[in-house]
Design brief:
By secondary structure, this protein is α/β, with parallel strands linked by helices. It has a single domain, classed as Spore Coat Polysaccharide Biosynthesis Protein SpsA, Chain A (Alpha-Beta Complex). Helix content is 28%, strand content 19%. It has nine helices and twelve strands. Strands 3-2-1-4-8-6-9 form a seven-stranded mixed β-sheet, sandwiched between helices. Strands 5-10-7 form a three-stranded mixed β-sheet. A hairpin with an 8-residue loop joins strand 11 and strand 12. The longest helix is centred in the first third of the chain and has 15 residues. It is globular. The protein starts with 6 loop residues before the first strand and ends with a strand. The structure holds guanosine-5'-triphosphate and magnesium ion.
């Protein structure tokens, strides 16, 4: 008989009061719950903490950790928050650790049961997850590498997570990509299981606002949120990955990206350029 691994979850949450209750309700409803779930409020000022506290009072396996307030929103912030959560679980006996974004939810009560079974079945599975859907977009697997695992709900075998040194605090994003690519480089299997799906809220976070653009470096071809003119038209190309100005300036990170088409967006009205890899 397969032994299902115990898992822990960490959710970095920065001003997610609009969504986090749905996230919490979906995890509470799971048939196989985490050993511990650390929700790290990353300097939230919108009532996120109060919502989490309410559930943490009810469920001893949910814990709120609060990070100090800070001005900027960026993906290094997400990683610092995750790491603060990690220190709270590192002494527990778990085999799988996951990042669960605080704007993700599940309709399926067996979501984590399903994924834990996958980890039990394949001892070389280092990183696992499912696709996510947003209100107006769905995954199209003709354009996505099934070995790439979205960071919205990204699960790691503990041994793999420790071997890759955890998440790297990259301000410009791509944190989830670097994690699963490093895992693959170290010989682990990484896999998106398309039998199930999570829901991610369609939000417009402000991390790219300074640069006047909002693109994702990611596994989601249908997902383009930006205020750069012309992007909607380009999104029709269903590019497999896009790069933003920040990652463009980081050729090493840039070369990590799995993509069919690369998108370079000019700031201040420069027309977007499209390159085929
Ligand atoms: N972007 C960002 N997210 C943070 C930060 N600190 C914590 N987070 C959390 O990290 C998770 C991912 O952030 P999101 O803004 O949802 O990033 P995303 O899913 O790539 O982008 P969206 O499509 O806009 O949801 C969420 O749970 C955030 O609340 C931060 O400084 N920046
Ligand atoms: Mg999100």
């Amino acid at each position: 008989m397969l032994i299902r691994p115990a898992y822990v979850l960490i959710s970095p949450a920065r001003n997610e009061a609009n969504f986090i209750e749905l996230t919490i309700k979906s995890v509470v409803a799971q048939t196989v719950r985490p050993l511990k779930w650390i929700i790290v409020s990353d300097g939230s000022t919108d009532g996120t903490d109060e919502i989490v506290r309410q559930y943490a009072n009810e469920h001893s396996w949910i814990e709120l950790v609060r990070m100090p307030e800070r001005r900027e929103r960026h993906f290094a912030g997400k990683v610092h928050a995750f790491n603060a959560g990690y220190t709270r679980v590192k002494d527990l006996a778990f085999e799988v650790i996951g990042n669960l974004d605080a704007d993700v939810s599940f309709d399926d009560k067996d979501y984590f049961l399903f994924l834990m079974n996958k980890f039990a079945e394949d001892p070389r599975l280092g990183v696992g997850g499912t696709p996510y859907q947003q209100e107006n977009s769905t995954y199209d697997y003709r354009f996505v590498n099934i070995e790439d695992v979205s960071g919205a709900c990204q699960l790691f075998r503990r041994e793999c997570f420790e071997e890759i040194g955890g998440y790297l605090p990259l301000k410009g994003g791509g944190v989830d990509h670097v994690a699963f690519l490093t895992a693959r480089m170290k010989g682990w299997q990484t896999r998106t299981f398309i039998d199930k799906v999570s829901n991610e809220q369609e939000t417009f976070s402000d991390w790219g606002a300074d640069a006047g653009l909002r693109l994702s470096v990611g596994t989601s071809p249908a997902r383009r949120k930006t205020n750069v003119p012309g992007i909607d038209r380009l999104s029709q190309t269903r590019a497999d990955a896009a790069i933003d100005e920040t990652s463009y300036r980081q050729p090493d990170l840039f070369s990590f990206a799995h993509c069919n088409v690369l998108l370079k967006v000019g700031i201040g009205g420069t027309p977007p350029l499209l390159f085929r890899c």
